[in-house]
Amino acid sequence: EEAVEEEEFDPNAELKAEVAELEAKVKAARQRTWNAEEKAAKSGKIGYMRLAAEFESYRVKVQQDKKDEKSRVEVDVLRRMIDVVDDLRAAPVVIPATTEAEESIHKSYQTLYTQLEDRFKKFGLETFEAVAGEKYNPLLHEAVSYVVVESEEEVAGTIKSQVREGSRTSKAVIRKVEVEVFEEKVLDVVSEDAEEVGEVVSEDAEEMEDVVSEEERIVDETEAV
After folding, report:
1. Where are the transmembrane segments (predicted)?
2. Do residues 172 and 181 touch, judged by C-beta distance below 8 A?
3. Domain limits of the chain?
4. pLDDT tens sequence across 43-54
């Protein structure tokens, strides 16, 4: 005899199933929320780091721009004032004092000159010179005159002598060294070419005269016949 067990009837089975389904949905929703929060946190951190890096780059650029602008202003001031300093330094020699009053004025000028020179030294201003025989460099030298090469020891494009010293800082050349520069004998070359051309023209003229004379002789002989 087979025993048939009847399943017990649970009146809350349907309700329990709905509860289990709701719990699963809640769990899934919480998981999605956690994932979204974690993603947002990571994204926010990356965004903050990117923003911080961009701000640091901007800060460095602004500081460099300020530094460059300050350097440009310093160089401009030095270039405008250096001739004034030279004039003050040369004043006692160019206009010597002959009276006590003039001597007092000269002392005042020299005091001003000393103060300006001290300020310039704080900017790092220093003098530099050109050496005879070195190659002319337009970035450092300013040619105020040219001297024609006269011997084998003299080389075109090199410095013959210095006229006035230059000034510079670690950032820029404030005033170039004024120099005399050797150059080739251009005029001699032109003269030699002109002489050669003149000789050729003279030879051609003589040949033409001979040809004309020969033609005249032939014409005379023909007429005589």
Report:
1. none
2. no
3. 86-122, 125-183
4. 666 666 677 778
Q: Where are the alpha helices (DSSP H) in 95-151?
A: 100-122
Tokens of 69: 């602008």
- Interacting residues of 165 by C-beta distance below 8 A, sequence separation 6+: 127, 128, 129, 177
- Of 210, 142, 222, 223, the residue nearest 180 (C-alpha): 142
d(CA 73, CA 27): 69
Does residue 186 register a pLDDT over 50?
A: yes
Tell me the longest C-alpha to C-alpha distance in the chain.
Answer: 176
CA-CA distance, 158 to 137, in Å (whole number)?
9
The 10s digit of each residue's pLDDT in 28-69 is 888 887 877 677 666 666 666 677 778 788 888 888 888 888
In the numeric block, which tokens belong to residue 129?
């010179």
